[in-house]
Amino acid sequence: MCSLYYGVEAWALTETMPRKLEAFEMWVYRRMLKISWTDRVRNSTVLQRMGKVPEVLLTIKKRKLEYFDHVMRNTKKYELLQLIVQGKVAGRRRPGRRRISWLKNLRQWFGKNTKSLKK
């Protein structure tokens, strides 16, 4: 599962990605417990046998928030990245529906606006 987290700080998760990540986590746990894919075992039972809670999404959220904090603290090194994150880049956006943004993930997960995330 270590390679799953490679570069996760830069991901912008769409609505379907959390479900896919949880499904992958459960698949790994089932493989570890040698549960066949034809067996009818609930996810809660698998988690109970492993003695775990679903942790992939929690880890992703934690790492993204830590990276956001790292970028916002280092003003000299990440000046351009700060401008991009804050949305202060000049120009016009593309036509059509906006893509899910990296910062919007953080705002939705923690229920805060950008200013309170910076604090």
TrEMBL record:
PANTHER family: REVERSE TRANSCRIPTASE DOMAIN-CONTAINING PROTEIN (PTHR47027), REVERSE TRANSCRIPTASE-LIKE PROTEIN WITH RNA-DIRECTED DNA POLYMERASE DOMAIN (PTHR47027:SF20). This is Jg9522 protein. It comes from Pararge aegeria aegeria. The gene is jg9522.
